[in-house]
């Protein structure tokens, strides 16, 4: 196999169809297989091609099967040895793997050895696709797939024997691989910021103070509306862009007609940004629009912070009161940071951009499934799920489904038995363990019976 090709390893207990799958993948793509000297005879390497271009190398650990069967007949000791043998071989194969095709048997369903091997694979933190083999017909396909969700890997049903879904398999496996580096040099990363707040709160003053002398107004890019005037600048070696600042400016003129200040168009600019800054006026307090905005940002899981501007105008006790009001309004999103600043005096402006960076970094975290499941054990042990309708929900498995914002899925026996208060406990605990203090977070519970 070409050494520079990414390698996908077929892992699975004996008889699930790995060898059949391997042959099918190789043959259907007219690739050449050969033995690799120096590698145990039991391992088969081949190259999977697409339109005659090699896409990835595939490694089959299938040779274990024969030995394994031989050992099974030897009785209980043999079976333990056999499991260990599979684990050892899998372990060796995983060492230089780029991704894993975890093969299971759709007709047998999920067996303990599948779960055992899957746990092993998860600990590696490699991108993994669960290939549900022997789904020879469409009937009962959904039913058969359901229990494999518990493994927490994305699933694809195939039939190696009948060649069903082989193209989709190559496509899904290719999707596991790291993106090829493109020809174009990537644009230097910039942190995109949206500035919201009612007219006169000091949005323009803040943008000017933060961007300083070196700002570049990027306006009227062909094909975009006049509203998309971006302000791009560099601070401490990092690149930032305030998006849609034309909207900010225009609205400043509608000082006497607050109703015209449109929450919806404000929200729109947040979708173009990595982090949103909501500016309030310390002298004016929290307006109805501000409340609506906070509510919407929270519901939409927008990463945001609150700036209480014009602190130079308000006495200390008024600021304390304002902060208290805001904390109450934010009781369901306590992760949102609040800064007391002044565009005029410069108070605490230096904290804004690093905080925005931090929120964005937290929002982009990817936590390995192994770490998540260790954390889940710890969190469940510290506080058991409460008894609801005479029993407790069982928690099987935790996985991260997405980032931006971090989204976690708990596979549980019965989500109805998990009260909201316990979900909030889980969120607090995960935030603490993984140090996600200011980014929004989504938690989902999925029942898998
Ligand atoms: P391995 O031990 O995991 O490599 O599994 P094999 O490839 O040797 O397959 C084990 C058995 O399952 C063989 O008898 C195959 O013919 C059979 N098999 C493999 N794929 C399929 C399939 O898609 N459908 C059915 N019905 N049988 C299959
Ligand atoms: P925008 O409508 O939100 O863009 O607000 P502007 O930036 O245009 O500011 C509105 C008014 O508030 C202007 O007169 C600013 O000089 C004033 N202003 C902005 N920030 C501060 C501040 O921190 N302290 C004080 N005292 N005035 C400020």
UniProtKB/TrEMBL annotation:
A Pfam family hit: MMR_HSR1
Superkingdom of origin organism: Bacteria
Record bears the keyword Repeat: yes
One BP annotation, GO: ribosome biogenesis
CDD domains listed in its UniProt record: EngA1, EngA2
SUPFAM superfamilies: P-loop containing nucleoside triphosphate hydrolases
HAMAP family membership: GTPase_Der
NCBIfam families recorded: GTPase_EngA, small_GTP
Subunit organization: Associates with the 50S ribosomal subunit.
Family of the protein in this entry: Belongs to the TRAFAC class TrmE-Era-EngA-EngB-Septin-like GTPase superfamily. EngA (Der) GTPase family.
Protein name (Swiss-Prot/TrEMBL): GTPase Der
Source organism per UniProt: Desulfovibrio intestinalis
């Amino acid at each position: 196999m070409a050494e520079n090709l990414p390698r996908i390893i077929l892992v699975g207990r004996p008889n699930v169809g790995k060898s059949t799958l391997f042959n099918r993948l190789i043959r259907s793509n007219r690739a050449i297989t050969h033995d690799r000297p120096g590698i145990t005879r039991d391992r088969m390497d081949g190259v999977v091609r697409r339109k005659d271009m090699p896409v990835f190398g595939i490694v089959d650990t299938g040779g274990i099967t024969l030995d394994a069967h031989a050992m099974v007949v030897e009785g209980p000791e043999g079976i333990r040895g056999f499991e260990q043998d599979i684990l050892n071989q899998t372990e060796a194969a995983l060492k230089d793997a780029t991704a894993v095709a975890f093969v299971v048997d759709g007709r047998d369903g999920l067996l303990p050895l599948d779960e055992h091997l899957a746990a092993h694979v998860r600990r590696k933190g490699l991108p993994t696709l669960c290939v549900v083999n022997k789904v020879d017909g469409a009937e009962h396909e959904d039913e058969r797939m359901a229990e494999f969700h518990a493994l927490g890997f994305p699933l694809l049903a195939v039939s190696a024997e009948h060649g069903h879904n082989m193209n989709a398999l190559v496509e899904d496996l290719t999707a596991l691989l790291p993106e090829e580096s493109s020809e174009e040099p990537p644009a230097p990363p910039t942190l995109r910021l949206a500035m919201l707040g009612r007219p006169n709160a000091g949005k323009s003053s803040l943008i000017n103070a933060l961007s300083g002398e070196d700002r570049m107004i990027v306006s009227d890019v062909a094909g975009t509306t006049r509203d998309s005037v971006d302000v791009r600048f560099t601070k401490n070696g990092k690149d930032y862009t305030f998006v849609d600042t034309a909207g900010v400016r225009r609205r400043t003129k509608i000082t006497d007609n607050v109703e015209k200040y449109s929450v919806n168009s404000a929200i729109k600019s947040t979708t173009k940004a990595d982090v949103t800054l909501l500016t309030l006026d310390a002298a004016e307090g929290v307006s109805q629009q501000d409340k609506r905005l906070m509510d919407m940002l929270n519901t939409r899981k927008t990463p945001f912070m609150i700036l209480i501007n014009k602190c130079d105008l308000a006495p200390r006790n008024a600021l304390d009161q304002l902060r208290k009001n805001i904390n109450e309004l934010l009781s369901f999103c306590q992760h949102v940071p609040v800064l007391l600043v002044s565009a005029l005096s410069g108070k605490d402006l230096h904290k804004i951009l690093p905080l925005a960076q931090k929120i964005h970094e937290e929002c982009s975290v990817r936590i390995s499934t192994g770490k998540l499941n260790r954390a889940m054990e710890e969190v469940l042990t510290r506080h058991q799920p409460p008894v609801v309708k005479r029993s407790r929900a069982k928690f099987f498995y935790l996985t991260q489904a997405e980032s931006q914002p971090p989204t976690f899925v708990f596979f549980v026996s019965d989500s109805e038995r998990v009260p909201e208060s316990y979900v909030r406990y889980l969120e607090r605990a995960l935030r603490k363990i993984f140090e996600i203090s200011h980014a929004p977070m989504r938690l989902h519970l999925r029942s898998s019976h």
